[in-house]
Structures are given as structure tokens and as C-alpha cells.
Amino acid sequence: MVNNATALSREQMVELAKKYFRLVDGEEGSLIDMFTTDCRVFFPKYGTARGPQELAELASGLLKTQKFFRHDFDSMVFTVEGDRLAVEGLVAGESADGRSWPAHPRNEGRYCNVFEFSGGLISRLHIYEDPDFLTEDTARLLWD
């Protein structure tokens, strides 16, 4: 993992994001190697992971509760501004105990990830997604 300021084209950023999602979905390869050594990754209920060690901790925590993730590549919408790429889309999965999600009409499996790149690597990633994948926090479903 190295840092340099080589600018990426829109197409390169989109391809890197797609590779990231394929790795999250279980494709062979190293997710950690896609990030700079000083990366910052935000995930709700975790906070911000700084660097590869904390990123591995964040990923390990998610993998303890989830058997797999499946991102719908056809639903992805890419918006680019400078070295920042926002990706909106749909994701489904299965919990470690075998329950599929999204399983509730109010939880559609929507997410928005915002990537920043440096030297062909991800330097910052903010993941905006409800971490209550199974919609178990029903007390806050105010519209049912």
C-alpha cells in the first residue's frame, strides 16, 4: 500500500469501486490491499477505522454476523466529482445464522458509499447503510 497523487479517470474510479464490491461479495483477493496505509473508513455503529489494522477489525466484526453480501451491480449509480466517487445501490445478504435480508418492506437494502482515491487506491470510504440488516430494531420503525 502506497500513497501518491496520480489522478484517476472516472472509468478507473468506477472500476476500482466495482472491484471493491466484488471483493466484499466474496471474490478472491485482498480487500485491504485496495486501501492506502493512512485510509479512513466510516461505518455506522463502528465509527471511523484508521489504517489497515482497524479496517481489518471492522471487516472482521461484520463477517462474524454475516455469511455473505451480494451487491446488485445493475442498480449502481455512480456520481463523480474530482477524486470522489459516490455509489448508490442495493445490497442483500445472509446472516451468520442463515436469515436472508433485506426481509422487511421498510429495509430495501439501500446504501451509498462515498470513495476518495489517492494513487490508484482508496484513501477514504464512508459507508452509509443501515447496519440493522435484519430489521430487528422494530421499535424505531415509526411508520408501521
TrEMBL record:
Record domain SnoaL-like: where: 30-124
Family annotation (Gene3D superfamilies): 3.10.450.50
Entry-linked InterPro entries: NTF2-like_dom_sf, SnoaL-like
Short name of any one Pfam family annotated for the protein: SnoaL_2
Name the record gives this protein: SnoaL-like domain-containing protein
Upper classification of the organism: Bacteria, Bacillati, Actinomycetota, Actinomycetes, Kitasatosporales
